[in-house]
Amino acid sequence: MKVWKVTHPGFITLEDLGPSEVRKDCVKVKMLAATVSTTEKLVFKGTLKGCTFPRVPGRQGVGMVSEVDESVHKFRRGDRCYVSSQVACNECYFCRIGRKSECSHLQTYGKDIDGVLSDFAIISTDNLYLLPDRITDNQAVFIETIALAINAINTLNIGKGDHLVILGASVFGLIMAQVAMAHQAVPVLVDKRPDRLLLAEELGVYYCVNGAKEDLAKKVFSITGGKMAGRVVCSMDCADFDYGTCADIVSNYGKIGFVGTDSEISEINVDLMQIISKSVTTYSINHANDNISAAINMLARGDVNVDKLITPIKFSEIGAYLERYAGGEDFIQIVATADK
Ligand SMILES: [Zn+2]
Question: Is 301 domain-assigned?
Answer without folding.
Answer: no
